[in-house]
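Re-run with default settings, no changes from the original entry. Doing this only to confirm the output is reproducible before filing.
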Amino acid sequence: MSKVSEKPELFRGGTIASPSDRQWWRQDSARLVRLAIVVGLIATSFLYLTWRAAPPIVSGSSSCGTQSQSAGTPASSSIHTIKQAYNCILDNYPAALDPRSLLQHAMGGMVNYLVQHHQDQPGAVLPALTGDRQADWQAFERTYTTMTAHLSSNQQDLVAAAIAGMVDGLHDDHANYMPPPRNKGGASAPPGTRTGLGIHLPFYNPEQFAQSLPPLYIRSVDPGSPAEKAGLRPGDTIVAINGFSPFINQHPAPEVISQLSSSAPIRLQIQHPGAASPTRVSLVPAAYPATPLVSTRMLPGNILYVRFTQFKRGVYEQINRAMQQAGAQLKGVILDMRGNGGGDVGEQRRIISMFVHNQAISTTIDRQGQRAELRTDESIPLFHVSLVALIDRGCASACELTAMDIRDLHLGRLVGERTSGMASGPSSDFSLDDGSIVTVPVAFLQGPAGESIDGIGVPPDDDVHPTSTELAAGHDPVLEKALEGL
């Protein structure tokens, strides 16, 4: 008996296949149909899950890109630029946001701009919003088109006001908006210099100034600056700025104090400690030598004093070199981080790893709730010395993370004032089509003990507030207190 072929042909030598052959084909066809159905269902499910996982976007909108992705000539600011910023914030901020809140702040920013420039429009009102991301944007876009129909074709300032409103509405210290650059002409400051008056006050931002009380005294003066050349010294009291008191009925006047950071000449009335009457001083902002990024000196008792103004690349190398040069007799280190606004988290990790190994120094939590632990760098040489850090209200971001590590990991003492509480989390810069930049946090930060210090700050172990009298006498009570325990 001959063996039946496993895959018979429909025709054999021109004759029709046998009934058994036809039965095999029908069974095989049924298997193929079932297999095709299963594959189709799997493919459909995959496409559906991919669509569900993708972040929602506004129809017809391209989102923002990182600075490294930006290229080409910037476009003119337009409603599309606002749309990019809207999507950028919603897609990257590490917490769920209500699109209605973003658009309300955008409209508020535009209305404030229009009112200030006497261009208010009847149509400048917020449309009814539902919380649906796409539908709310479409309603906002229609309103924008109506309200700008009779305005100038150059809408750069209005667009900037809308985006700034959205960013400010986040109330996040690591969120920022930088408008597109303008060509104003003029020469920039030479390398290694900074431009200004060289005056530093006891507060570092408008929120701190809003909580301050008179008198307004000078905390420090930059060497070689216009202020130093005019004879201004730490401890001097600023009585008036361009004829106006910085305080009105004991309340700070921001519009007056802000003139100290403008590029225009300024007239000050200064009261030197012990002087019989105030002195009038005229200052013009100018370029002067920038403060060194790192400065070190040995103090009595083999104590190394290190002051650094930012966490920039190269700071660790300079601090490590100074500690190596101090040799085996080094007993302690004082890190003066007063006024340090933060910087590179990687540099912060290298610096703290000089004093501790095998420890988690922070944790970040992204928008998906994923936790990432940052640990010390074991390749960094470890120094077994006493540590004291000097902090104040100007210590922010990576500086506060360092203070938090010193406290939580019991690495040393903190002396001075509570830090600024500006430590939301690591942020990224995103470019918009007009050349402007939106900066938003991409994760939230927690310390080694699991705490958040954003909006709170890190308290010192020894609370020391310098007075104008002490500063005028050349004393540094914070440094003096730090030396007591070393």
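The longest strand covers residues 266-271. The chain has three domains: 65-171, 193-289, 294-427+434-484.
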